Amino acid sequence: MIETFQEFFRSVADHHPTWNFIFFYEERQWNKVIGGLWVTIKLSLACVLFSVLIGIAGAAMQGAHNRFVRYLVAGYIQFFRNTPPVVQLLFFYFALGRFTPTYSPDGWLELPIISNVGWAIVSLSFFAGAFNVEIFRAGVEAVPRSTQEAASALGFRRLQIYSHVVLPLAFRVSLPALNNNLVNLVKTTTQAFVIAVPELLYQSVTIWNDFPSAQNPMMAVLFLSYLGLVGILVFGMNRWERSIRIPGYGG
User: Fold this and answer.
1) Helices 27-62 and 215-243 meet at what angle, rounded to 10?
2) What is the full per-residue pLDDT of the chain (251 aa) written as tens digits?
3) Where in the sequence is the domain holding 227, given as residue range(s)?
4) Buried b (16+ CB within 10 A) or exposed e, 163-202
């Protein structure tokens, strides 16, 4: 069965030179595609998780009594929102990467403690996190002041009011905008290509550089892969939004 499948795509490549699905009949190229897709998935999941945590923490810090903390968050937002993510990736990897400590697993080769994948996670998480801070801030401001005052009257401390009352309601209000930002984040992971993160785009380029006849099939794989990843994310976020919806909050 597998041999028949591979022979079919070999014949397609012979008769249609611009549609060489080499990854379907050559194991090494297949492993590149699967490896690249797996790195893309892990990179997306890590960036989504950390960017949401940054957004929640940043929104809480925006309401701090300390003026320095508020200015620090405002500066962070302006820096990451007003510079391109590619420039940020290059800055983190090539500029800050020079100052990171190294280790030697074999006594000869010196490796940085943060790899290119690690820097991609850091950079893209901070980039999306800057937008998430504003998204959560808008959600926090949508929570009625009377609700917070009621919680305070019941003896809740400021942190308890934020974590048990304000944040759950603000999260519901923020989900539609958060959904859009996370979709953009997943698509932005392709830019990790510039620091040689072996995600799907990077592996696709290595394949069609070696086999120019595979460029069209790899473009199709890229298109369908990201369509699938984003579709799964949107479906999951929409299901989650409906499951936690409270009448009067979040639309």
Assistant:
1) 40
2) 777 867 777 787 777 778 888 888 888 999 999 999 999 999 999 999 999 999 999 998 988 888 999 999 999 999 999 999 999 999 999 998 888 888 777 767 778 888 999 999 999 999 999 999 999 999 888 888 888 888 888 888 888 888 888 888 888 888 889 999 999 999 999 999 999 999 999 999 999 999 999 999 999 999 999 999 999 999 999 998 888 877 765 55
3) 38-243
4) eebbbebbbbbbbebbbebbbebbebbbbbbbbebbbbbb
Phi, psi values for residue 163, rounded to 5°: -80, -35
Q: Which two tokens stand for residue 42?
A: 């892990």
- Return the CATH number at 214: 1.10.3720.10
Count: domains in the chain: 1
Confirm whether 24 is domain-assigned: no
Q: What is the 3-state secondary structure (H, E, C) of 151-205?
A: HHHCCCCHHHHHHHHHHHHHHHHHHHHHHHHHHHHHHHHHHHHHHCCCCHHHHHH
